[in-house]
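User: Could you check the structure of this?
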Amino acid sequence: QGYQADRQRTVTALDYFADKGWIELESKQMTDVFRVLELGACQGDSAHLLSQEIHQLFLSKEETEINRVHAMLSLFETNTCLSHRLASYFADEHAPAQCGHCSVCRGNVAVLPHANVQGEIDLALLQRVIKPLVEAAAKEGLVVSVEAMTRFLCGIATPLTGRLRAGKMEGFGKFAKYPFDEVQTKVRSVGE
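Assistant: Sure, the predicted structure tokens are below.
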């Protein structure tokens, strides 16, 4: 946009750079974009406070999205009229208790598949596969948080995993079949 370049030409150039190994491309469905409006707010002590504020904003957004997904799943797993539940959510108290049209009213209650029950997480394996991530981060002068380790183990790409080329490490996604909270609890117990 700044150079008024053709988008397709830019995409072709980025693909070429990625093929040469000069950059690592990760395509995402949605991206939050920010613009610096006050440079002073991004320097010195202000930068630290701002980074904490943005971190809390992202954590809050993540929690809201997780809760939204769980609410949607519980809506479809209900054995009461879907239209009535949806109307109740939007405070419509005049909706009939049974619409007669939704899958529940027609006798087809949805049963969503549950995650496969996995065996106990092997703590020795967990420690072994986290070690290369922690060592790579230390070489860059970085400390890896419990959340970052958990995302790595569950196969969730982050800017840190991209920077450290952690997606190519053995441990990336090693515990992807386990619930995130369970992996996070184990990572915390290893760090204690």
